[in-house]
Design a protein that fits this description.
Largest sheet of chain A: 7 strands, mixed
Radius of gyration of chain A: 22 Å
Order of helices and strands of chain A: EHEHEHHHEHEHEHEHEEEHEHEEHEE
Largest interface: A-B, 62 and 62 residues
Oligomer: homodimer
Number of helices of chain A: 12
Helix content of chain A: 25-40%
Strand order of the largest sheet of chain A: 3-2-1-4-5-12-13
Structural class of chain A: alpha/beta
Amino acid sequence: MQKYNILVGQSGGPTAVINCSLYGVIKESLDSDVIDKVYGMKNGIEGFLRGEIMDLGEFFSDPDKLELLKQTPSAFLGSCRYKLPPIDETEIYEEMFEKFEEYGIGAFLYIGGNDSMDTAGKLSAYAKRHGSHIRFLGVPKTIDNDLVGTDHTPGYGSAAKYIASTIRDISIDAGTYDIKSVTIVEIMGRHAGWLCAASALARNKHVHNPMLIYLPETPFHFERFVSDVKEALKKENNVVVCVSEGIRDSEHRLICEYSGKAEVDSFGHKKLTGAAKLLEEAVMNGIPGVKCRSIEFSLLQRSSSVLASGRDKEEAEQVGRFAVRSVIAGESHQMVCMERAEGDEYKIDYVLKDVAEIGNKEKMIPSWWITKNGTDVTDEFIDYVRPLIEGECDIRFSDGMPEYVYRD
Amino acid sequence: MQKYNILVGQSGGPTAVINCSLYGVIKESLDSDVIDKVYGMKNGIEGFLRGEIMDLGEFFSDPDKLELLKQTPSAFLGSCRYKLPPIDETEIYEEMFEKFEEYGIGAFLYIGGNDSMDTAGKLSAYAKRHGSHIRFLGVPKTIDNDLVGTDHTPGYGSAAKYIASTIRDISIDAGTYDIKSVTIVEIMGRHAGWLCAASALARNKHVHNPMLIYLPETPFHFERFVSDVKEALKKENNVVVCVSEGIRDSEHRLICEYSGKAEVDSFGHKKLTGAAKLLEEAVMNGIPGVKCRSIEFSLLQRSSSVLASGRDKEEAEQVGRFAVRSVIAGESHQMVCMERAEGDEYKIDYVLKDVAEIGNKEKMIPSWWITKNGTDVTDEFIDYVRPLIEGECDIRFSDGMPEYVYRD
C-alpha cells in the first residue's frame, strides 16, 4: 500500500482546545501505517498558498513537547480568515491542487468553524468535479457553538467553563461592599447566545447572579432593560447582568451600533464592541445613585488554559483522531459531528455529516431553551450545558506560569 | 489568665488571598489558649457599627469548610470603604469602644490596605489616649502593593501571576493571525504601577510581549506613545501594550480624564476607567490599517482562585497568624510587615511596624526599576517580582467550578 501525507490547518478564531484537536490529528496520523508525514499549514490556507508548511512529526519528535500542545491555548499553527472564491474561479484552486501534489498530500483536514467548513466544502467540491483523489474533512472548532449538525462544538465547553466560573468570581467580588451595584458583563457571540447563556451555570445556592441574561435570539429594548434591572435590584443588592455582544433591537439593529463605531472584518462580520458600555450608561442615567460598571471578557474567554474543561479537551482530541481514521477509511466532503446519546448518562458518538450542509450556517439557541420573558435560560438548557464544563486539567507550570509549546 | 475575644474585619478592595489571612487569624486564634471567641465584623467597621458580627469559630466548626476559605476569593466577611473622623470627634469612637466592651474584645485586627491602616491607626491612637486595654493591629492586604514598610503586600503576588499569565495568553491569541495588530491592556493601579509592571513576567524566549509598559510613575505623552507603538510594530506584528489605569500626563492630569468621565468614591479616589480605550483611539487615528483592540482586566485580576500564587497564599496566611501571635504578646498600634532576607534564596521575615507610619502613604516603583525611556522595567524589578508569583494551588472543584465557602 502506498503511503501518503496528510495536511492539517487551523482557521478562524482560537479556542482553548483547538490544539487538542491538532494533537489528536498528529497522534492518530503518526500511529497509522498508511500516513507518512503530517504537514501543518501555517496560518491556514493563506499561509499554505505562500508555501508555509511544517513537518509536524519532525517538530514534535519529542513526546513531551507534543503533550504540552494539549495545554497550549490559541492556534498553534496560526490561523487566517481567508475566504475562497466560488469553485468556478479555478485559478487559485489549480494553484492549491498543484501544491497538494507537490507535497504528496492524500488528505486535507481543516480545524475550524462555519467559515472553515465553507473552505473545506469548496475544496472538496472542486476535487470531486476534477476527479482528484484527495480527501477533505472538516474538524469542528468554535467557542460560539453555532455549527449545525453537531450536539456542540469543541471549544465551547471550555469557554463556557471560563464564563461560568468568572461570572461567579465577579458576583462574589462585586458583592463585597454593602451597596447597590450593577455589573454588566459582555460575552462573545455575534448571532447566537450560547456563550452568554452558559453564564447561568455561575448560580448556586448562594450566588444568584447573573440575575439577567440578554441573548441575540431575543430582541433587546432599552426601556425594558432598565426596568428589569430596577426589579432585580429590589431582590438583590448586587446585580450581575450578562449580555451577548450581538444583542439587537426589534429591527435587528445591533445595540453596539448605537454608538456608531462597528467595523467589519474580511468575511463581512462586524467587529462588535461596546454593548455593555452602552448598557452601563443606560443604568447610570436610568437608575441614579447605583454603582455600575461594565466588563468585557474579550479574548480572555477563549484563551484560558487553567479553566479549560477536561471533557472539552478530551472531545477535541477525539474529533481530531476520528477525522484521521475517517480519511484513512476513504471518507471525504464531511465534517466530524458529535451526537449525544439519549439517557441520563452523558455519552458522545462521533459521526460524519456532509460538510456542505454545515458551512455558512448558524445554529441559534432554540426558543424553548429561553424563558418567556427573554432574560434567562431554562433548566433544559442547563442540563444540556452542564456536562460540557466538567473535568479539570492538570496543567504543567514553570516559573509560576502555565507552560506552552511555541511554533517559533 | 482571663481569656478574651478577638475581632477581625476585612476592608478595602478584595484580593484572591485576603481570605487566607482571615484563615490564618481564625486558625491561630482557635489554637491559642488565651483567646476565647473569634468574631468577624461583616462589612468592616461599617457593619460592626450596625452590630453585624458573626462567631467565626462556630461558623467554621467543620474543618473542611475552613479549608475552603483558603481558595475562596474576595472578602468573605464583606468589606467597606468607611473613613473614621479624627479622634477628637469622639462620638463614633465612644460608640465603638462600648461595643468592644459589650463583646469582650481584647484585640482588633483589620485586614486591609492604606485606608484600613488609617482606621487601625486612629482606633489605636484613641485607645492609647483613653487608656483602653484593647490592642489594635493591621494585617496588610492589597493587590496594589503600595503599602510602605513592607517588601510587598499579600494579594499582589496573585494579581501579578494572573496578569503575567493572562498577558501571555493574550499575546499568543492576538498573534494567531498573520496581520499587524495592537492590543492595549488596562491594568489596575491608581498611583503606583506595580501591577502593570508585573506584566513583564509574561515574556519568555518566544513571547516578546508586552512590548511596551506605561506606568503612572512616568509622565505619559500621546505623541510619544503613538511613535513608540510604530517602532514596536517594526519589530513585531503582534504588539501588546500594558498600561496602568492611573497613567497621567506631565501636568499630572489622568489620561482617563481626557474623556471627561471619572467619578469619585467616598475616600475621594477617582473611579478610573477608559485609559486603554483612549489609547486604542490614538492608535487607530495615528496608525491607520492596524487592527487595534483594548482590554480591561477589571475585577478579574483580583478574583481568580485558579491563578492565585501558592507563595502569596502561604504568606497571606502567615501575616494573619503572626498578627494573632503579636496581639497575644501584647503588641498594638502596629502593622505586620514582610522583610525579604538578603541573598539568592527567597526568604521572608515577619516584623511589626508602627501603623501610623503606614496609613495614607503610597509606595511607588522606585525610578531605578523603570527603564530610562519609561516604557519598560529593569531586570532588578523582575528579580524582585518573580518569586512572588511562584507556586501553584491545588483547587477543589465541584460541578466543574472551583468550590467556595459563603457567609450566607
